[in-house]
Every structure is written in structure tokens, then in C-alpha cells.
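One chain given next:
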Amino acid sequence: MNDKPSALIHVVEDDAAVARLIAAALERYGFRHACFGRGGDFLRQLRVQAPDLAILDLGLPDMDGMDVLQQLRGRHRFGLLIVTGRDDTHDRVMGLELGADDYVVKPFEPRELIARVRSILRRYQPLAAGEAEAPRAASFAGWRFECATQRLISPAGGEETLSLAEAQLLTAFLERPNQILSREQLLAGRDVCALDRSIDLRVSRLRKRFEQGGHSGKFIKTVYGAGYLLAAPVSWC
């Protein structure tokens, strides 16, 4: 018998009908949940209890969802799924850059929402006892990436901590340098459609990290019709 409680999901959505739809889907699939109609109420609850994942609407009545994202990623570590009615690529890119793990656009199918929730939760699962790997670090094009801490260190010595999604994407490239990786390969293990363009947004976000560190990021190359490639030698230690 498994006595482990199901994952706790916080739903931050001011549209009561949408919140009910999400809550019903979560309950149907066995997730615990709590709903918040305002960003401030959600942030105050985090002082008492953090969820395993938050589903966050960007259009909240008391504060912009982007502001909520900025506060979350500086202080907390749990899964973040954006639910938005903003059919704007810029908003989705910005959300991912601020640390969201994925997004879904309204209207959406409840099954798609649950698939994305499960996918994000898997990424945040701790390793079982005895499964911990020895810390690894990769050096490439003057950069260094430490897997255990998710730290990216620039050639000039500047340091940034990547989000979990960014770290997983960069690790996929570093483990198979100078190989074309399809979107399906980069989305391995995630319950999303292979045609989903969120991987393109993730690659764009990762490139921007390198640009901010004083590099063009051009060693992550787009191979049109095939996928992406990290064009740099990589050494591990």
C-alpha cells in the first residue's frame, strides 16, 4: 500500500469557470489542489505551505502574472505551468525566461493540462536512495556547467543558476555534442506533442543566457527541418 500523499497543486486563476475546470481535472486524476483568485493570496499562502506545482494564469486582477513569476523563482523551487489566454509568443517566451517550466494556451483540453502537469512533476522528483550520481561538470566553448548546482559559468567568470527546464535542455545538448537532436529527442520523457513549439522557445531562452554572458550563443545551431545541434567540443569532469 502506498501511503505517500498525492502531489499538491496550487491553481492561481481569477476566472471561476476556468478554475473549476482545472480543479475538476486535477481531482479526477488524483491530485490535491487549492485555488487562489489573486496573486497576493497565493504568495501569502507560500509562507505557510509551498506546492509541488503551481498552475498560474498571467492575467490576474491584483498583479501581473509575470511579476508573480519573478518573485517565485528567486525564492522557491517547485514546478510552474503557465495557463494564459494571451495568444502572444512574446508573452510565452517571457514566461519561460522568467522560470516557468511550460505553458498551455486557453482554451485547452483537460487531458493536455494533466499531461503537462505530470511531465513537470517528473522533472522535479528527487532521486531515490542509492540513485544519486556523482557531481558532473561540462566545459565547452569557454563555458562551464555544473549539473548538481545548475550553475552556468561564463568565460569571464560570471555565474547564473539555470531553471530546471533550462538545465535539462543544456544537459541534453552537452551529452550529445555535434549531433543533430530532433524536437522529439529534446522532449524525451515528456507528455507533449512532438510538434509542440515550446522547445523552440526553450532553445531561444537558452541562447539568450549565453548572449547575456557575452557570447552570441551561435554554437547552438538550428538545423532547419531536423532540429538543433550544439557545435562545440565538450569535456566532462
User: Anything to note?
Assistant: Confidence is low (pLDDT under 50) at residues 189-195. The chain has two domains: 8-123, 137-236. Residues 198-212 form the longest helix (15 residues). The radius of gyration is 18 Å.
